[in-house]
Amino acid sequence: MSDSQQPEQGLNGMDLIVDGWFHERGVLWPGQAMSLKVEEVLYHGRSLFQDVLVFRSSDHGTVLVLDGVIQVTERDEFSYQEMIAHLPLMAHPNPEKVLVIGGGDGGVLREIAKHKGVKEMTICEIDGDVIKYSKQYLPGLAVGYEDPRVTVRVMDGMEFMLANQDSYDVIVTDSSDPIGPAGVLFEAPFYQKMYDSLRDGGIVCTQGECMWLHLDLIRPLVAKISEFYQSVEYAYTTIPTYPSGQIGFILATKNRGSVRKPARVDRELEKDLRYYNAELHEAAFVLPSFARRAIFEDK
Amino acid sequence: MSDSQQPEQGLNGMDLIVDGWFHERGVLWPGQAMSLKVEEVLYHGRSLFQDVLVFRSSDHGTVLVLDGVIQVTERDEFSYQEMIAHLPLMAHPNPEKVLVIGGGDGGVLREIAKHKGVKEMTICEIDGDVIKYSKQYLPGLAVGYEDPRVTVRVMDGMEFMLANQDSYDVIVTDSSDPIGPAGVLFEAPFYQKMYDSLRDGGIVCTQGECMWLHLDLIRPLVAKISEFYQSVEYAYTTIPTYPSGQIGFILATKNRGSVRKPARVDRELEKDLRYYNAELHEAAFVLPSFARRAIFEDK
Question: Which keywords belong to this entry (chains A, B) (predicted)?
């Protein structure tokens, strides 16, 4: 197992399973690795875009791995899916049209579907294999596809947005890390395309990497997109099986102010949730001083 | 390396280093493991109480391991030390006498020393070797011992408290996990001893394990001690090198109400901190729904 190089074309997820444990090592988190105990490999293959591995773990349920990086474990996925979906949706007073870019496992759709006021959900996932194998092995997430309001487009999100301007109240980008197919999703031109596809008052929420690992990536991106979004803020959620145990979200608005307080509180909906609640919405934006300074204050 | 048994008398930290990586596997976090890349082992030996390992890592600075469990890495220790110290100290309007149980590395003392109003800090650490090797290899933490207000007692905390009733404004218990020498620190009798050693209006803050792993341990302990403390609350901090990336704190008060809001805000002191700030004080008590329900609501 190599541990200090870029995942190459030839990365093989099976090589990361040694002595019955899957070891997640990557250039984005040098010198540290999360390991999960493997009970059984359920699927391994190469899609048009990436290495796809699905295994059943001893204690974390079924696990989806793309290019050697853990995307989902059944045990803790709810913290990510709930927060990336409900933070922007609850910050919007009346979201009707929602676009999901990436998110092929269906978990984000599952959460958006809990909002009765939403009329249309379109998902734009570039890798059809992620959808296919999630439906086969992660039914608890792929249940999101069963909602009649969902339209699935297997295509590039940038291309889709070019053809759909001023269309969405909320855009959620649920991407993998900025190495490989998702690299372009961490650059300002992608945020410009999302801006153009938002309706007035719209909100984007994107996977924003980890404040403990990637401040050098987050800071310039936030600075750059603050030039055209009206507000840009950073929240985070805890999730044990992502590197360093947390992941952040960039929330940016088109002609709308801060999203730090929810625009709506729905205690009925919260009964169906395991992570998000209105108080946690506000708390998720309160950053440790080192992260707040690095992202928003230091020059 | 065994991965599903109790650390025994014979646990040898060196056995956990394989192919240049330290692997932290334990019965308290089955099926998952954090690994850190080792550059050089600085010390390994057995104290009267536990296996002590100190190594220099590739990306996380010097690392202290007790009985196979990571206690401190220089890279992220500040999030733990700051929160376990400043949450109770800032919740108290005028803390003068502070007791630390455990915390032999000195990091908690370092944080308490930042409070000018504190007149006495006593540390009661059972394992003198932890103090000795922290002074040798973790000077950035052991600097806490240099403050003239510090008194060091190498002895059992329970015994010390028996002889010091109604004495302290704040007691901080910075312990290892409830297997091995620290087991007794997670039981109600220990919390009763702390209660007796608090002055009126006093606050205890203890290492409270992880909401993602140990709700079955936290819930009954919180219920039990709520019978004699006036308020009992749970906060958490993010810390990448602890299991699942977070650790919690139990804060309990003797004849004082909620500690969720700081009693004091000190922006000058905050300039010296990298994690704690007054806004984060409040946010740290806002739990994800699954944890809030499990600890405080479900019967």
Answer: Polyamine biosynthesis, Transferase
Nearest to B34 among A32, A276, A282 (CB): A32
The percent of chain A in helix, strand and coil, each rounded to the nearest 5, is 30, 30, 40
Do both B38 and B91 map to the same domain? no
Q: A37 and A156 share a domain? A: no
Is A174 considered catalytic here? yes
Q: Kindly determine whether residue A23 and residue B35, on different chains, have CB atoms separated by under 8 Å.
A: yes
Q: Considering A22, A43, A73, which residue would you say is the last residue of a domain? A: A73
Q: At what angle do helices B215-225 and B188-197 cross, to 10 degrees?
A: 40
CA distances from A31 to A154, A248, B271 (A): 36, 21, 30
- Look up residue A64 and give its two tokens: 């989806």
**Is there a contact between A290 and B274 if contact means CB atoms under 8 Å apart?**
yes
CATH of the domain at B48: 2.30.140.10
Do both A101 and A244 map to the same domain? yes
In this structure, the answer to whether residues A43 and A101 fall within a common structural domain is no
Residues B141/B72, Cβ–Cβ less than 8 Å: yes
Beta-carbon separation of B290 and A275 below 8 A: yes
Q: Is A162:A132 a contact under the CB 8 Å cutoff?
A: no
What is the number of helices (H) and of strands (E) in chain B? 10, 13
Cα A178 to chain centroid distance, Å, stands at 12
CA distance B221 to B239: 23
Which H/E stretch holds residue A290?
A: helix A289-292
Give yes or no: residues B119 and B193 share one domain: yes
Domain extent, residue A29, equals: 3-73
Asked if residue B287 and residue B199 are part of one domain, the reply reads yes
Return the SS3 of A249. Answer: strand
Instruction: Please state the φ and ψ torsions of residue B286, each to the nearest 5 degrees.
Output: -85, 110
DSSP conformation class of B296: I
In order along its 299 residues, chain B shows pLDDT tens digits of 333 334 446 789 999 999 999 999 888 899 999 999 999 999 999 999 999 999 999 999 999 999 999 999 999 999 999 999 999 999 999 999 999 999 999 999 999 999 999 999 999 999 999 999 999 999 999 999 999 999 999 999 999 999 999 999 999 999 988 877 778 888 999 999 999 999 999 999 999 999 999 999 999 999 999 999 999 999 999 999 999 999 999 999 999 999 999 999 999 999 999 999 999 999 999 999 999 999 999 75
Select from B220, B201, B222, B204 the least CA-distant residue to B161.
B204
Give the per-residue pLDDT at B77: 98
d(CA B165, CA B194): 9
State pLDDT tens for residues A229-269: 999 999 999 999 999 999 999 999 999 999 999 999 999 99
Query: Closest residue of B to A19, CA-based?
Result: B1
Best B17, B29, B32, B59 member to test A by mutation, with max A CBs in 10 Å, is B32
Which residues have a Cβ under 8 Å from the Cβ of B188 and sit 6 or more positions away? B221, B224, B225
